[in-house]
Write a structure and sequence with these properties.
Layout (H helix, E strand, L loop, with lengths): L21 H10 L2 H4 L19 H22 L2 H4 L9 H10 L8 H16 L5 H12 L13 H7 L17 H14 L8 H24 L7 H4 L2 H13 L13 H22 L4 H18 L1 E6 L4 E8 L2 E2 L1 H19 L2 H21 L2 H4 L5 H9 L6 H10 L3 H12 L11
Antiparallel strand pairs: 1-2, 2-3
Helix pairs in contact: 1-5, 3-5, 3-10, 5-8, 5-10, 6-16, 6-19, 10-14, 10-15, 12-13, 12-15, 13-14, 16-20
Protein name: DNTP triphosphohydrolase
Keywords: Hydrolase
GO molecular function, one term: dGTPase activity
Length: about 450
C-alpha cells in the first residue's frame, strides 16, 4: 500500500472516481469546498471588500500555491536524493505542495489575525478551550467539511494532510501555542506513525509550504501596502529611526526568530541597511519603469520573489537528524537572506497592521466577534438563532464537540461580510428580512 496516498476513512476509494490520481482528487475536493470559496471574503491585510485590488485569503492562497509548486519542481530537479523516495516524509511532489498551500489558511476566522486572537481569548477565558488557525484547518478538513458520500471531512490523502501540518504537535498539550486539536491529532498522529515520522519534525512538503507562505507574505503584502499608501516609498519613512525601532521590536517579540541567531549580528544596523537597500532598489526600478508606480510595484514584487525562490534548498539538520527546507548559499543555511525576509515581513506588519486606522478596524471587529459569541454561547437561546444544518450536525455528533466549540466553529467559518451582516441583524438599527438566504 502506498502510505502517501492512503486515506483515513475511504480506504478503498469507493466514494471517489477511479480515473484520476489521488492528488488530483484532493485538489478537486479542496477548490470545490465551501471553506475554500469563503476565503474570498476573508481578510488578508486589508478587510475583504476594501477594494478590488487588495489581496484576500483566497488570492493569497492561490499565490502561495503557485510559488510552492514551482519551487517544488525546482527542488526535484536539483536534489537527487528526492528521486530515491526512501522515506514518505522526504519526498517532494509538486501536486501535494500545491494542495497544501491552497488549504493552509482555511482555518482563519473573519477579520484576519485579530479574529483569531479574539476567539482564542474568549474560548480560553470562558471554556478552557483554545482556538488556533492551523488547528482549525484540520478541524475543517477532517470534521466540519462534508463531501458527497462522506461524513468525515474531505478525507484527503496522508501526503496532503501532513504537508499542511507545519506544527506537528497536539495543541492540547500544556504550553503549546500552535498545533492540532486533540480530536484531529489522533488521526494525524496515526498517519505520522504509519510513515515513521520523527517526533516534532514536519515533512519536506510542509516545510516548503510554510517557507513559500512567508515569501508571499513578505513580498505581496508590501505591494498592497504601497498601493494603499500605507508604505510611503521615500526617505522620510525608510530612514525614520522610529520605523527601525518598531521593526526591531517586532523581531525581538517574535519567539520564532530565535532560529535566525540575531545575536550574531548588529540587528539595528542590519535593519537599517535592509530598509535602505529596499528604498534604493525601488528608486532604481521606478526609473526603469518610466516612473509608473503600478509597473514598479509589480516589478519590485517579482524581483524579490525571484530572489527568495532562487535561494530555497534542502540541507541536513544536525539538531533533529532530519532535513530542512530553507534558504541556502554555498551549501549552508543562508541566515542573511532569512533575516532579510523577516525584516520585510515586520516592515509590512508595523506599517499595515499597526497603523492606527487598521487598529480601529480591529477594535471594531473585536467588538463584533465578542457580541456574536455572547449571542450564541448559551445553548437554550443560541440554538434559536443558529442555522438548522449546524444544529442537525451538532445533534448528530454532539459526543464529539461541546456546544461552545460548535459556536466557535460557526463564527470562525463566517466571512467578514457575513459576520457584519449577522451582527447588524442583532445590534444595528436596521430592519432585516426573513427572505434573505444565508
Amino acid at each position: 500500500m502506498n502510505v502517501r496516498k492512503m486515506r483515513l476513512f475511504d480506504f478503498e476509494n469507493i466514494h471517489s472516481s477511479e480515473d484520476r490520481d489521488e492528488y488530483e482528487k484532493d485538489y478537486a475536493r479542496l477548490i470545490q469546498s465551501p471553506a475554500f470559496r469563503r476565503l474570498q471574503g476573508k481578510s488578508q491585510v486589508f478587510g475583504a471588500g476594501s477594494g478590488d485590488y487588495y489581496r484576500t485569503r483566497l488570492t493569497h492562497s492561490l499565490e502561495v500555491s503557485q510559488i510552492a509548486r514551482e519551487v517544488a519542481r525546482k527542488l526535484v530537479k536539483t536534489n537527487p536524493f528526492l528521486a530515491k523516495r526512501e522515506h514518505p516524509g522526504l519526498m517532494m511532489d509538486p501536486e501535494v505542495v500545491e494542495c497544501a498551500s491552497l488549504a493552509h489558511d482555511l482555518g482563519h476566522p473573519p477579520f484576519g489575525h485579530k479574529g483569531e486572537e479574539v476567539l482564542n481569548e474568549i474560548l480560553l477565558e470562558e471554556c478552557g478551550l483554545k482556538y488556533e488557525g492551523n488547528a482549525q484547518n484540520f478541524r475543517i478538513l477532517m470534521f466540519l467539511e462534508k463531501r458527497a458520500g462522506s461524513d468525515s471531512g474531505l478525507d484527503l490523502t496522508a501526503a496532503v494532510l501532513l504537508a499542511i501540518n507545519k506544527y506537528p504537535y497536539c495543541l492540547d498539550d500544556p504550553g503549546r501555542l500552535k498545533g492540532v486539536y486533540g480530536m484531529e491529532w489522533e488521526g494525524i498522529s496515526s498517519l505520522r506513525n504509519a510513515w515513521g515520522m520523527p517526533e516534532g519534525c514536519a515533512t519536506l512538503e510542509a516545510q516548503l509550504m510554510d517557507l513559500c507562505d512567508d515569501i508571499a507574505y513578505s513580498t505581496h503584502d508590501i505591494e498592497d501596502g504601497i498601493r494603499a499608501g500605507k508604505i510611503q516609498m521615500n526617505p522620510s519613512l525608510f530612514e525614520d529611526d522610529r520605523l527601525v525601532a518598531n521593526v526591531m521590536q517586532e523581531i525581538i517579540d517574535d519567539p520564532g526568530n530565535a532560529v535566525m541567531h540575531w545575536e550574531q549580528v548588529d540587528m539595528k544596523q542590519m535593519v537599517k541597511q535592509a530598509l535602505l537597500h529596499y528604498l534604493q532598489q525601488w528608486e532604481s526600478i521606478y526609473v526603469e519603469c518610466g516612473r509608473e508606480p503600478s509597473r514598479t510595484r509589480r516589478e519590485m514584487k517579482a524581483r524579490w520573489v525571484r530572489k527568495f525562490v532562487s535561494g530555497v534548498g534542502i540541507i541536513d539538520d544536525p539538531v533533529t537528524g532530519w532535513k530542512r527546507v530553507t534558504f541556502i548559499r554555498d551549501g549552508v543555511q543562508d541566515l542573511e537572506l532569512l533575516r532579510t525576509m523577516e525584516i520585510l515581513k515586520k516592515l509590512a506588519w508595523v506599517t499595515l497592521i499597526k497603523d492606527f486606522r487598521v487598529q480601529r478596524l480591529h477594535k471594531r471587529s473585536e467588538i463584533m466577534i465578542k457580541r456574536l459569541w455572547d449571542s450564541f454561547k448559551v445553548q437554550d437561546t443560541g440554538r434559536l438563532i443558529i442555522p438548522p444544518d449546524w444544529l442537525e450536525s451538532y445533534e448528530r455528533q454532539r459526543s464529539k464537540w461541546p456546544w461552545e466549540r460548535m459556536v466557535a466553529d460557526y463564527i470562525a467559518g463566517m466571512t467578514d461580510a457575513y459576520a457584519e451582516k449577522v451582527y447588524a441583524e442583532f445590534y444595528a438599527s436596521r430592519s432585516g428580512s426573513i427572505y434573505e438566504r444565508d
